[in-house]
């Protein structure tokens, strides 16, 4: 059996590379590093890096590596990615060195009553491995990507061992806080999967996995659970009640969630232990969350590592870490929690009512804005919460009210982009076009997409004014033509994993399609544009779920323009299917479910996939997306999670059709929605057919 506490196994480090911290130095070094790193959450990354570079402890090096990591992941610039790899390697070596020294001579290291000696350094090491895994993918190298997945597995092993030590301590000293009602499920944990992400362990692991060292003898009597036992999860009042399956058993997802929670600040006031606790909750929670979001096709790759994510457990761990938002771990957890709900959950159509805890999110956001008032990141999250409430005007006001630019250019680009999307949903076409063109000056990515959306804005204005103000319409038409020409020249330059960006591929195909139609019809490209491309783009950015009644009715009006035009009679079936999907989605969001289903049946499902694919430069995404929209209609008609079982089964049946569909254009844009929908139905006891 693997020796407890020996999670860190890396090649021998150069022990003379830096001065080792003593037990007395360590808390001071940690406090100083956390204070410097807090500037990151205020968008002052340069100041954070400058101050962190003055320290040599593993905590300082980890914080400095984080500043590079944020720049790299926000910019995707190759030079920054390479620099980040170097900083992460330095931080990883430093953490490894200090952890080995602590194991070799425990008397010189921080003494924790909860964790094995050196756990804080093992945590630093795991955090560098997690970031290295991401950088490995961004390097667009298969070798680096595989190495990154290996580091991911090693990081999990480390985090899991630290967590087990904490669970054992809590079980021994705080037995009433572990949720006695779960004892039966825990007794069977060796025979039943908990749904929590776990790595397969076998005697066939590689040499590094077996290269373990003894930990502090004070912890040798602690049991090592077979699986994560759930003590680090959030209170049960923020999760849905356990649903029953057909067999009458509680869903695995909630089986090991405790009925109450422990305030860890009452367990210990040791700053090093609090850092370890919040850091493990952050990292392990993020791992669970990310892997649970991976679409089934990609999750099969991770099955090689035997990783399974549990979204609920991941969020509970992240929420727990946010209690320590005055340090970098809690601050990052807060950013992840807010970002996940504002940018992911809010745009999903099939989820439980408890999945979006609006009051709790608002309270967390207020805390973060108070602690870090200079950061635009929190302004972004506040605007997203307003958008999720279908208050788009308020969202734009928030983004414009706090108009001071972020010190981090990449964050400022996110703010302008978020505003641009909100203006698109508001049908403020001129302002939207101007805002997207401004985004061109802030980053080097997706310029073709920005030109495309701006051109589509002027196309809508041309259509609006064509019959009433010909001169004004002509100006917008010329502007649209000019911008459409810039699309092709500005796509395909940026790639990810050696492939063109999906939206770049999409807009190139659309422009090619309209260009060919213009030649065939002997007209300008703007006159050859089909069903409202801006309403279509709104769908792929999940804009309908953020629109109020007035904006949805404007979408229907823009779609009606196409249907009422003289040229509609000659439109191919793929354009007619686009119209049907978009009309049905608008009607669904207006709660006219019966009409929405009728439109899907009569205007989309009436066509076969071969018919649609036979069209020139076909939009073949409509049929699978229509099946998803039908699933949402059934879900809403059922009344959600507590609805009629027959309708929930119909929802699942429609979902199965899109889950089994072949790959289609922009399938990743609806992938998270499908994954969330299936997980939600499973919680309701609805098993896929």
Descriptive overview:
This protein is 61% helix and 1% strand. It has 689 residues and is mainly alpha-helical. The chain has a domain of 304 residues. A hairpin with a 2-residue loop joins strand 1 and strand 2. The two termini are 41 Å apart. Interacts with lipid droplet proteins. It comes from Zymoseptoria tritici ST99CH_1A5. One of its GO terms (cellular component) is cytosol. InterPro entries: IML2/TPR_39.
Approximate strand percentage: under 5%
Main beta sheet strand tally, sense and closure: 2 strands, antiparallel
User: What is the number of E strands?
Assistant: 2
- What structural class results from the helix and strand content? mainly alpha
Question: Could you tell me how far the N terminus lies from the C terminus, measured between alpha carbons in angstroms?
Answer: 41 Å
Compute the CA-based radius of gyration. 27 Å
Helical content band: 55-70%
Low-confidence stretches: 1-18, 178-260
Organism: Zymoseptoria tritici ST99CH_1A5
Subunit structure: Interacts with lipid droplet proteins.
Region (Disordered): 86-111, 175-212, 226-255
Biased composition (Low complexity): 180-194
Task: Break the fold down into its secondary structure elements and pairings.
Blueprint: H1 25-37, H2 45-52, H3 58-75, H4 78-104, H5 119-138, H6 142-173, H7 183-187, H8 207-210, H9 264-267, H10 271-293, H11 296-302, H12 311-322, H13 328-343, H14 358-371, H15 376-388, H16 392-401, H17 409-425, H18 429-439, H19 447-465, H20 470-489, E1 495-496, E2 499-500, H21 502-521, H22 525-528, H23 533-540, H24 549-564, H25 573-589, H26 593-603, H27 609-613, H28 622-638, H29 645-659, H30 668-683
Antiparallel strand pairs: 1-2
Helix pairs in contact: 1-3, 2-3, 3-4, 3-5, 4-5, 5-6, 5-10, 6-10, 10-12, 10-13, 12-13, 13-14, 13-15, 14-15, 15-16, 15-17, 16-17, 17-18, 18-19, 19-20, 24-25, 25-26, 25-28, 26-28, 28-29, 29-30
């Amino acid at each position: 059996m693997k020796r407890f506490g020996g999670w860190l196994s890396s090649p021998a480090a150069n022990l003379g590379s830096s001065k080792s911290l003593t037990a007395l130095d360590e808390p001071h070094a940690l406090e100083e590093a956390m204070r410097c790193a807090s500037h990151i959450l205020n968008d002052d990354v340069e100041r954070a890096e400058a101050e962190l570079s003055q320290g040599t402890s593993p905590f300082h090096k980890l914080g400095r590596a984080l500043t590079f990591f944020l720049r790299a992941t926000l910019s995707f610039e190759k030079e920054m990615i390479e620099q980040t790899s170097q900083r992460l390697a330095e931080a990883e070596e430093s953490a490894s060195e200090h952890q080995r020294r602590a194991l070799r001579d425990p008397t010189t290291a921080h003494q924790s009553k909860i964790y094995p000696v050196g756990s804080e350094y093992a945590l630093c090491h795991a955090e560098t491995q997690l970031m290295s895994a991401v950088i490995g993918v961004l390097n667009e190298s298969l070798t680096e990507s595989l190495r990154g997945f290996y580091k991911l597995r090693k990081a999990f092993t480390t985090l899991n061992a630290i967590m087990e030590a904490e669970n054992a301590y809590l079980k021994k000293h705080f037995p009433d806080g572990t949720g006695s009602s779960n004892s039966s499920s825990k007794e069977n944990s060796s025979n039943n999967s908990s749904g929590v992400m776990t790595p397969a362990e076998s005697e066939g692991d590689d040499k590094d996995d077996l290269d373990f060292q003894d930990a502090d003898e004070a912890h040798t009597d602690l049991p090592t659970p077979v699986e994560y036992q759930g003590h680090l999860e959030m209170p049960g009042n923020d999760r849905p009640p356990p649903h029953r399956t057909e067999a009458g058993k509680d869903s695995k997802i909630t089986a090991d969630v405790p009925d109450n929670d422990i305030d860890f600040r009452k367990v210990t006031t040791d700053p090093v232990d609090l850092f370890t606790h919040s850091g493990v909750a952050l990292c392990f929670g993020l791992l669970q969350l990310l892997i649970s979001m991976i679409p089934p096709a990609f999750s099969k790759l991770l099955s090689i590592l035997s990783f399974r994510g549990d979204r609920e457990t991941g969020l509970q761990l992240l929420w727990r870490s946010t209690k320590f938002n005055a340090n970098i771990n809690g601050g990052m957890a807060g950013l992840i929690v807010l970002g996940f709900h504002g940018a992911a959950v809010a745009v999903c159509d099939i989820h439980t009512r408890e999945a979006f805890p609006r009051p709790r999110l608002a309270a967390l956001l207020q805390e973060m804005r108070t602690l870090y008032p200079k950061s635009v990141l929190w302004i972004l999250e506040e605007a997203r919460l307003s958008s999720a409430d279908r208050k788009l005007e308020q969202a734009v006001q928030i983004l414009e009210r706090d108009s001071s630019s972020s010190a981090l250019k990449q964050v400022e680009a996110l703010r302008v982009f978020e505003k641009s999307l909100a203006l698109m949903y508001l049908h403020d076409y001129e302002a939207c076009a101007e805002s997207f063109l401004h985004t061109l000056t802030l980053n080097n990515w997706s310029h073709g997409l920005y030109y495309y959306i701006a051109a589509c804005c002027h196309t809508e204005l041309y259509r609006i004014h064509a019959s009433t103000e010909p001169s004004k319409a002509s100006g917008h038409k010329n502007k649209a033509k000019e911008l459409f020409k810039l699309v092709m020249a500005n796509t395909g330059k940026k790639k990810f994993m050696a492939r063109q960006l999906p939206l770049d591929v999409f807009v190139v195909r659309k422009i090619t399609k309209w260009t060919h139609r213009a030649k065939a019809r002997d007209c300008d490209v703007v006159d050859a544009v089909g069903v409202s491309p801006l309403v279509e783009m709104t769908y792929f950015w999940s804009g309908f779920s953020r629109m109020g009644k007035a904006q949805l009715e404007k979408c229907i009006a823009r779609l009606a323009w196409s249907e009422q035009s003289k040229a509609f009679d000659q439109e191919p079936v793929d354009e007619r299917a686009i119209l049907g999907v978009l009309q049905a989605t608008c009607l669904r969001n207006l709660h006219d479910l019966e009409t929405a289903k009728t439109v899907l049946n009569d205007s989309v499902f009436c066509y076969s996939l071969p018919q649609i694919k036979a069209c020139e430069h076909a939009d073949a995404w409509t049929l699978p997306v229509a099946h998803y929209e039908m699933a949402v209609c059934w879900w809403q008609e059922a009344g959600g999670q507590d609805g009629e079982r027959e309708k929930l089964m119909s929802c699942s049946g429609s979902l199965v059709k899109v889950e089994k569909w072949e790959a289609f254009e922009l399938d990743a844009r609806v992938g998270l929605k499908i994954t969330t929908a299936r997980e939600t139905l499973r919680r309701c006891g609805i098993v896929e057919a």
